[in-house]
Amino acid sequence: MRPALSRKEPSKPDPTKFQKILLVRLRRIGDIVMTTPAVTALKKALPRASLTYVVEEPFRRLVEGNPCLADVLVLKTGGSSSRTVGRPDDFHESDSSPASRPALRFIELVRHIRAARYDALIDFHGGPRASWLTLFSGAGHKVGYMIKNKGFLYDIVVPRGPAEGHIHSVVNHVNLVKALGVEVPEIPRLFLPGPKKEEAGDVDRFIRENGLQGSKIVVLHIGAGNRFREWGTENHAALAGLLQKTQEAKVVLVGGRENEAAARVIIRKAQAHSLVGRNSLIELRELIARAALFVGADSGPMHIAATTQTPIVALFGPNIPAIVAPWKAKVRIVEKALGCRPCKQRECVHTDFRCLRSISPEEVFKACAEFL
Predict the structure, then answer these.
(1) Which pTM was predicted?
(2) Structural domains present in the chain
(3) Which of 7, 64, 95, 156 sits a CA distance of 20 to 30 A from 312?
């Protein structure tokens, strides 16, 4: 009798033989920053391997210039793509070309990846487009998370978290590296590349023009990834007033263009300075690095702050620190112990977002005073 057919188990990888490894993490700021310890650990363990990172256009500067990476492939918003490191002429077309249409440009990116013949691929994301890239990459060993209906994409799958309890996202990403057979004795800090000359110059000019030299600068992030993480304009204004009155701090507001109206309200009430909608991600890091304190809700800029030595006061609402606290940073967490946390941020069971908005400006100010 014939033996029953069984699925062939993938061969166990020997990471010392890997010459080219593709890393995929599409969106967003904090998620990308939290992959950097895994990138650093991978390069340290396999110094001869060439690492390439695929990222979306708005976030390219978070990895562009990372000394661990030999190449960066950029997927523009809408699906078009370009190469930013190495020899750009090898993989670049003007946006006016017929191939600039999203679907065709995405196919071209896939073709470029297949032609590169990567020995291994690590999918830090698991989203739809990352899954398509993984499926058609042609990589020798594909590693990703154990996601429903997507396990077949990978040769090696890793659980996103333990059966009980929680695991930090940084540790999760490092576990993907370990799944390739790479040893990671100690998980490094988060990393972002330093500013270019013009980026540092922009921060210098802002500090000089606003008379902030030698001041106790507090960077206050007034944005949020969604309405569940929005602390409120009135709370930000009250905190800014307390900081300037009691601690003689100079408050600098940061956030996206969507926060410009809120910034104008805060400035009228607290006379803060504003860089809202005006700075790049690396310029933001440079400003935070020169500040006495960073304050903000759980968000991408909070993780950018964690790449510096500047202390952080972090407000946590729907998420919990066990999963996404600032990694290896000097931080004071402000949160409320509610049974509905963490939540999936689709619907507030209380309808009032109390997990974050019940935190008072006075509570946050008290945490700030510990550092100032």
Answers:
(1) 0.90
(2) 15-179 (3.40.50.2000), 197-371 (3.40.50.2000)
(3) 64
